[in-house]
Design a protein that fits this description.
The complex is a heterodimer of chains A (233) and B (307).
Chain A: E1 2-11, E2 14-24, E3 29-34, H1 40-47, E4 54-59, E5 62-63, E6 77-80, H2 92-99, H3 106-119, H4 121-125, H5 136-148, E7 154-158, H6 166-181, E8 185-190, H7 193-199, E9 202-207, E10 210-216, H8 217-222, H9 224-230
Parallel strand pairs in A: 3-8, 3-9, 6-7, 7-8
Antiparallel strand pairs in A: 1-2, 1-4, 4-5, 9-10
Helix pairs in contact in A: 2-5, 5-6
Chain B: H1 2-32, H2 39-57, H3 64-91, H4 100-121, E1 126-127, E2 136-139, E3 142-145, H5 146-168, H6 170-180, H7 182-187, H8 192-218, E4 220-221, H9 225-240, H10 245-269, H11 279-293
Antiparallel strand pairs in B: 1-4, 2-3
Helix pairs in contact in B: 1-5, 1-8, 1-9, 1-10, 2-3, 2-4, 2-8, 2-9, 3-8, 5-6, 5-8, 6-8, 9-10, 9-11, 10-11
The chains are: A alpha/beta (233), B mainly alpha (307).
């Protein structure tokens, strides 16, 4: 479904992502793990055309490297950005409606808002509140719910556990698991490697802008180098 | 007492016009963080375009209000096109430039438009023909003309429509989302460039209406009229809290009333030493006070950090 070849991101003279190749098959759940500053977020942003980058990015075979960024959501790609990126001054419901911005099927949109509310009941209670008044965990749920509103086939998640309490992390990952079970393909960037690999089928390890390992999750969890570097053992 | 009421009425009329113009400043600031100093010139172009169109329509022998409406309906699309072009030509190439660059450009655009208007319409004052009924009506011991009532009502209707657009429609939601976080709005599929263009076009349409109102209210229009009007409307936007729609409306009305009361009483208060020709001083006095004591304005949030 997603095919990335030779992806490179430069910030001034610094090369944050160097020659990354990455594949995600339809229905697959793939993690991209690595230390802080390894280039995971940059790679994800480059895939979603939020950063200028070199290399090819294909979505279902179509090259999206030159597509206008706002057209990607219509092609089935949604990103839950780092730091959630909820619209703080819009209400929870309006945030969800923004997620469905490119859709015109009003009745189905209303149904999908109901679906998001039943998946994330906390959001229903807060529907009329502005998103800025929500807790960090609730904002993360809103960001995920908002991404689902576009009915994505490929969902990119950037550090969904960041800044959340352990209980909230568990809840958020439960939601992500449910979403994946409904057939949405996942590419998950996460510093919490154990959590990411326990959810995903396969993982890439990124170091200093390069992919150093690519293996099924079980294998990575057994890999001594991965264990000492990322699993704190 | 009737002087007081009279000045309040005059202030509401003036304030309604300021509010319409201030909305243009505040919408653009809200989305781009840019103070579009050329906005006052759009008002001027609206006024002069309408006057030219009215001059051409008068010989047709239509009723006065129809002629004015015709002038307005020509001025609105002209101003929308001007607003669109300003953003496209002058500001879009500077979208990622340091903040001072678009600000200086805005001043440049203002000068260019003013000079072009001078070349096209000349240096003379253009008079607004008496096409609208100016019969005064008694209200609480003061007088209000049909024209003044019309200005207040039309401004109120337009502002209500704008609030509805911004708070209740999909496009308005996209505008607010873009104002808050353009990168994430783009992820949602919002064509941010189009939203920005639309914001300029919308503000310019309001400016066109305001231009016709000013010309009708004072019976004159002039190539340089946009400068002072623009500054005052900008003051109104700052007073209310720039970036905030409600603030622009409140700031406009308040500024109009402050100016009118000031002009009405300054003579008595200074024993005739200062006359009502000092009216313009009040707006800038207000601007200074707001910037010193409440830079975020009455309803605004965090302006200091962005300006």
């Amino acid at each position: 479904m997603l095919q990335v070849r030779g992806l490179e991101v430069h910030y001034g003279g610094i090369c944050a992502v160097r020659g990354v190749d990455l594949d995600v098959a339809a229905g697959e759940k793939v993690a991209l793990i690595g230390a802080n500053g390894a280039g995971k977020t940059s790679a994800l942003k480059a895939i979603a055309r939020m950063l200028p980058a070199r290399g090819t990015v294909r979505l279902d075979g179509a090259d999206i490297a030159d597509a206008p960024p706002h057209s990607l959501v219509g092609q089935g790609l949604a990103l839950v950005p780092e730091g959630r990126g909820v619209f703080a001054r819009l209400s929870v419901r309006e945030n969800l409606e923004m997620g469905a911005y490119v859709r015109t099927d009003r009745a189905a949109i209303a149904d999908d808002i109901e679906r998001v509310f039943s998946l994330l009941p906390r959001l229903r209670e807060r529907a009329g509140q502005t998103a800025g008044t929500l807790s960090g965990g609730e904002q993360q749920m809103l960001a995920i719910g908002r991404a689902l509103m576009s009915r994505p086939r490929l969902l990119l998640l950037d550090e969904p556990s960041m800044g959340l309490s352990p209980i909230m992390v568990a809840t958020v990952f439960e939601v992500i698991r449910t979403v994946a079970q409904e057939g949405v393909t996942l590419l998950l960037v996460e510093q919490n490697a154990r959590l990411a690999l326990s959810l995903c089928d396969r993982g890439y390890v990124m170091e200093s802008g390069e992919i150093t390992l690519n293996a099924p999750s079980a294998e990575l969890l057994d890999n001594p180098a991965v264990r000492s570097a990322y699993l704190g053992e | 007492m009737d002087i007081f009421i009279q000045q309040i009425i005059n202030g509401l009329v003036l304030g309604s016009i300021y509010a319409l113009v201030a909305l243009g400043y505040t919408m653009v600031y809200g989305i781009l963080g840019l103070i579009n100093f050329a906005h006052g010139e759009v008002v001027m172009i609206g006024a002069l375009t309408a006057l030219t169109a009215i001059g051409l329509l008068v010989p047709a022998g239509l009723p006065g209000p129809v002629v004015v409406l015709g002038g307005l309906l020509i001025a609105i699309p002209v101003c929308m096109a001007v607003g669109f072009a300003i953003e496209r030509i002058a500001y879009r190439p500077l979208r990622n430039a340091p903040r001072l660059a678009p600000l200086i450009t805005a001043i440049g655009v203002s000068i260019v438009l003013q000079q072009l208007a001078m070349m096209g319409w000349g240096r003379n004052y253009h008079t607004f023909p008496p096409l609208l009924p100016a019969t005064p009506h008694q209200l609480f011991g003061a007088a209000i003309t049909d024209l003044q009532m019309l200005i207040v009502v039309v401004a109120a209707v337009l502002m209500a429509a704008l609030v509805w657009l911004v708070t209740r429609t999909r496009l308005g939601r996209a505008m607010r989302a873009t104002a808050e976080n353009p990168a994430v709005a783009r992820l949602m599929g919002v064509d941010v460039d189009r939203v920005i263009s639309f914001t300029f076009v919308l503000g310019s349409a309001l400016a066109a209406v305001a231009g016709v109102m000013v010309a009708a209210n004072y019976s004159i229009a002039h190539y340089a009229m946009g400068f002072m009007l623009g500054l005052k409307a900008f003051t109104a936007a700052v007073l209310g809290g720039i970036g905030n729609l409600g603030g622009a409306m409140l700031g406009g009305l308040l500024l109009g009333i402050i100016e009118s009361l000031g002009a009405g009483y300054i003579g008595d208060l200074t024993g005739g030493f200062l006359g009502s020709n000092y009216q313009d001083v009040f707006a800038f006095f207000v601007l200074i006070l707001v910037l010193v004591f409440r830079p975020s304005g009455l309803m605004g949030e965090k302006v200091a950090e962005r300006a």
